[in-house]
Design a protein that fits this description.
- This protein has one domain: NagB/RpiA/CoA transferase-like (Rossmann fold, 3-Layer(aba) Sandwich).
- It is about 30% helix and about 25% strand.
- The chain has four helices and twelve strands.
- A seven-stranded mixed sheet has the order 3-2-1-6-9-11-12. It has a three-stranded mixed sheet with strand order 8-7-10.
- The longest helix has 22 residues.
């Protein structure tokens, strides 16, 4: 990655992080409700029976209510667990599953751990993002876990990034290792941006 791209990514992440931190709790709660409705509709439209989804932090668009409701409806939900080698392990979400602080201080499940290839069986990947552009390029938070996961899948299902409405932008800085997403979910809309990879 060139220094210019790396610098542009750092600057954009810093701005987005700051914007998220000053958001009111009322706005966060409304966003979580909207995201849940959008994700519920997406899962239904795709007839997904097995999905992966991240557990949101306090500053991300809320996904936890969606995950709990999906589990209650009998959908198999894999939750990511970060590893020191840059790969993701997975754990199946349960109604009473415990959450602990993971490798980078992120919320992660406590329970039986499945290896990285467990995600190959899902019908839909729901992943975090800092921003997503109209070409389907995603700006993550800089650790590369989801780019590695998406890039290593033999048959990648639809991949949707979750962001706030203002984080769907004209362009994000990207390089050859960055993986596009199929679409974006915000509190008010779900948009298909790029073709599904096979």
């Amino acid at each position: 990655m060139s220094d210019a791209i790396a610098d542009a990514k750092r600057a954009m992440r810093a701005e987005l992080r700051e914007r998220r931190q000053v958001m009111s709790q009322t706005a966060r709660d409304a966003a979580a409700d909207g995201v849940r409705n959008q994700l519920d509709a997406l899962v239904e439209r795709l007839r997904a029976r097995s999905i992966s989804c991240f557990l949101s932090t306090n500053t991300e668009p809320g996904t936890r209510e969606f995950v709990a409701a999906a589990v209650d409806r009998g959908i198999r939900v894999l939750l990511p667990i970060t590893r020191a080698d840059g790969l993701l392990d997975w754990s199946v979400a349960t109604p009473d599953g415990d959450i602990a602080e993971g490798l980078f201080g992120l919320p992660e499940p406590v329970g039986d751990v499945l290896g990285p290839i467990a995600v190959n069986d899902v019908d839909l990947l729901i992943i975090p993002a800092a921003a997503i552009d109209r070409r389907g390029m995603r700006l993550g938070w800089g650790r590369g876990y989801f780019d590695k996961t998406i890039g290593s899948m033999e048959r990648c299902p639809p991949v949707y990034g979750v962001v706030f409405d203002s984080e769907v932008v004209d362009e994000v800085p990207s390089d050859i290792h960055d993986q596009p997403v199929t679409g974006v979910v915000t509190p008010t809309q779900t948009v298909i941006l790029a073709p599904v990879r096979r």
